[in-house]
Write a structure and sequence with these properties.
The chain is mostly helical and 176 residues long. The protein has eight helices and three strands; from the N terminus they run H-E-E-E-H-H-H-H-H-H-H. A three-stranded antiparallel β-sheet has the order 1-2-3, with helices on one face.
C-alpha cells in the first residue's frame, strides 16, 4: 500500500491505515504544518507536524487512488438496459430461429428489451411481405417455422402470423 512509502512513523502509518479502512478520504488540505484529511464518514483526521513534501506526496497518492477507484466504478457500472457485444451478437444470430421467451431467458433481458433492441438493430419492423416471400412460404409450408424465419429473415412470430393469414384467406384452418 502507498502508505508504507510515506515519511511517517510506524505508529502514524498504522493510525492512517486504520482510518482509511473505516472510510475513504474525500478531501485533503495543508495549513500551518497540519494535514487535514476529510473523510467520507464526516470525520476529519489531523496529521500534526507535517511537511509540505509529505502533504504533496499524500495528496498525489490519495488522488491517484481516488481516480483508480472511480475508473473501476465506471467500468463495472452497467445498467440493466445496456447490451454487451456478446449479447448483441447472440441476438443477431438467434433472433430468427428462437422464440422471444427463450431469448429472454438466455440473455436475462425482458421481452420488451429484446423487442426494442431487435427494432433498433432492424431485425424486425413492419415491412410488407413480397410476393416472392409469400410464394416461398406457400411452397415450403412444411418446413419448421424457425427455418422459414431464418431463410426469409423474418421473426418467428411474423412467419406464424403470415401462415395464419394465408390459411384463413384460403379457408383451410390454421398452420402453426
Amino acid at each position: 500500500m502507498w502508505i508504507e512509502n510515506l515519511n511517517l512513523s510506524l505508529k502514524e502509518k498504522q493510525k492512517l491505515k486504520n482510518v482509511l479502512n473505516e472510510s475513504r478520504i474525500v478531501n485533503i488540505n495543508f495549513m500551518q504544518n497540519i494535514i487535514y484529511l476529510s473523510l467520507q464518514n464526516s470525520k476529519i483526521v489531523l496529521l500534526r507536524n507535517s511537511t509540505e513534501e509529505l502533504f504533496k506526496e499524500l495528496k498525489k497518492n490519495v488522488e491517484k487512488n481516488f481516480l483508480l477507484r472511480e475508473k473501476v466504478k465506471k467500468t463495472n457500472k452497467r445498467k440493466a438496459g445496456d447490451w454487451t457485444e456478446e449479447e448483441i451478437e447472440y441476438l443477431k444470430y438467434n433472433f430468427y430461429d428462437t422464440d422471444i421467451d427463450s431469448l429472454s431467458l438466455h440473455l436475462k433481458k425482458s421481452q420488451y428489451q429484446i423487442s426494442l433492441k431487435a427494432i433498433e438493430m432492424k431485425l424486425v419492423g413492419a415491412r410488407e411481405w413480397s410476393s416472392r416471400e409469400i410464394e416461398y412460404l406457400e411452397k415450403n409450408v412444411d418446413l419448421p417455422n424457425y427455418k422459414l424465419a431464418k431463410i426469409l429473415k423474418r421473426s418467428l412470430s411474423s412467419v406464424k402470423a403470415k401462415k395464419r393469414v394465408l390459411r384463413m384467406r384460403k379457408g383451410k384452418g390454421c398452420y402453426l
